[in-house]
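[#protein-structures] MJ: dropping Rieske 2Fe-2S domain-containing protein here for a structure pass
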Amino acid sequence: MGTWTRACATEDVELEEQIRFDHDGRTFLVIRSPEDEFFCVDGICTHEHVHLADGLVMDGIIECPKHSAQFDYKTGEAMRAPACINLRTWPVKVEGGDVFIEI
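AK: finished. structure tokens for Rieske 2Fe-2S domain-containing protein:
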């Protein structure tokens, strides 16, 4: 079991947007869905080590800015080539206006 770590404030992330969170040598991506739910995935594309924070979020998908690989941000599933390896997902909770991820 991991440790709950504050990633950001809820107000830091607009609906259907993302924010990069770096912790202990790793990069994470916190995403806020149109339904106002928060999700967290690894912040680096599994295809070519590109930061996903510069990518497009739309309709439950995060798209890599380099080669347009797509991932389902709720499950981490690789949805479109060239990515064929899923992103790791991380548990998220919201408390008192802050977003925590379990690392």
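MJ: nice. The CA atoms of residues 31 and 39 lie 5 Å apart.
AK: one more thing. The domain at 4-102 is CATH 2.102.10.10 (Rieske Iron-sulfur Protein).
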